[in-house]
Each structure stands twice: as C-alpha cells, then as structure tokens.
Amino acid sequence: MVRILLTNDDGVGALGLQVLEEALAGVGEIHVAAPLNEQSGTSRSITLRRPLRFEKKGVRRYAVEGTPADTVMMAVNQILDFRPDLVVSGINAGSNLGENIYYSGTVAAAAEAAKYSIPAIALSVNARKNIDYSQAAELAPRIALQALETGMPAGVALNVNVPHPWNEGIEITRQSRKISRKLMIEVLDPHGRPYYWMHEEVPLADAEPGSDYAAIRDGKVSITPIRFDHTEEMLIEPLRQSWEKIMAPDL
Ligand code: MN
To answer: How far apart are CA 67 and CA 64, in angstroms?
Structure first.
C-alpha cells in the first residue's frame, strides 16, 4: 500500500493542509507531520539550540515544534516507522516561484524529503487571500499518482504552482531567475521612527519564456524539477587554473 507523508510550512492547522489530506485520501494512506506553528519564509533552517518536541494530534497526525526541515527530519527518523513512498508539502497559501523558492519553507520540506531519496512535491497556490483550493485539490492526486508512477532521481523534488484561477494547461518549466521580494515598505511608528515590511513586486511581465513565472502568468500550472546542488560547474575548471597560485603547497 502507498503511504504518503503530508507536511507544510503554514502549520498543522492550515486549511491548505486539510484540503490536501482530503484530496490525497484516495491515493494512499495519509500520514501528517507538520509544524505546530506557521513557518513560512523559514527556508531550510533547523533547530539546534533548543530541544525538539512533537505531539500526536490525531490518527496518523503529528505536530512538530520546529521548522519544516525539522519536521521532515523528525517524521522520517522518529515519528514514522517506515519510509514514505511520497512526501507532499502544502498546499501553500502563496506561490513559490523563481528565486523566492530559496526562502520557502514549503519547498524546503520537499527538498528535505528529497535528501532522503523520497519522491517529494511542493504544492502552492498563487493567491494569498480568499484562496479557493479546489483546483489545486483536483490536481494533487493526478500529480501524486504520476510522481509515484515515474519516480524521481535522488535529491530531486518537484515544485508545483497552481495559478488562481487555473484556466489553461500544465507545463514543465524551469525556475525563473527573478525574485519578487526586494521591496521594503516604510512605515512610521507613533514616535516617528521608521520601520519596514517586506513587500512583493511580482515580475510577471518580463518572465523568461518556459519559466515558472511565465506559466503562472499564462494561467498554467507550473511544474519545475529542482535540485539543491549549488555547484557552478562552469567555474570549476577555470578556478582550478586561474586560482592556481593561492593553491600552491608552499603558501
Ligand atoms: Mn507558507
């Protein structure tokens, strides 16, 4: 029997997680391990300076007092006594596109599962309020079944984003090089001192063709295979040569 671990970064009480549980119930046995509190934007951070705890919240349902990466580590190494066939992280309230994925807890949870060679999917909806999860819920079992059927190379996860509304097809994309988080909104506190909120400016107009942003702009679901080897292959040989003198043994 197929066993699926669900997680997220919006917290164990998030509506998107509840929708995902219902959507995937027909695909396999669902196990939930999610952060106790919201962890959006925590990326792949882990907890080292305080103890980690988890609590049972129901049948095959656990909350971990930590980040999404903590949660997947705890689930795989401690909570579950088996290796899940698939990990799905989401459904996140808000897209994870372009270079924003480096900050995403949703994507980090999938990446953490991929590190254990478990096929993993991060699933996000491109909306932040009044979210209708029904189209993402309809898509989730189709993507899960396909991922189970074809499998995934070790270390690779799928980053899936659903436009809101979704009215075109599905596209395999590449990660855009654009980022939406570079805008600081300045506000004055009652003492006249400035403070700041990070804001988004979505770079849809000039999205690269074939990219995740372009698919979402065109009303299509974006599926990007992602891996987390940050090596710049093209610089290895040139650096070995041009940096030769600092690598000399007599230095
Ligand atoms: Mn989130």
So the answer is: 8
Q: How far apart are CA 120 and CA 126, in angstroms?
A: 20
User: Both tokens of residue 172?
Assistant: 């395999």
Question: What does pTM read for this prediction?
Answer: 0.94
CA 13 to ligand 1 centroid distance, Å: 12
pLDDT tens digits for range 38-97: 999 999 999 999 999 999 999 999 999 999 999 999 999 999 999 999 999 999 999 999
How far is 48 from 119, CA to CA, in rounded Å?
26
Rounded CA separation 235/214 (Å):
29
End-to-end, the C-alpha distance of the chain in Å comes to 59
Cβ atoms 143, 160 nearer than 8 A: yes
CA of 209 to the centre of ligand 1 (A): 26
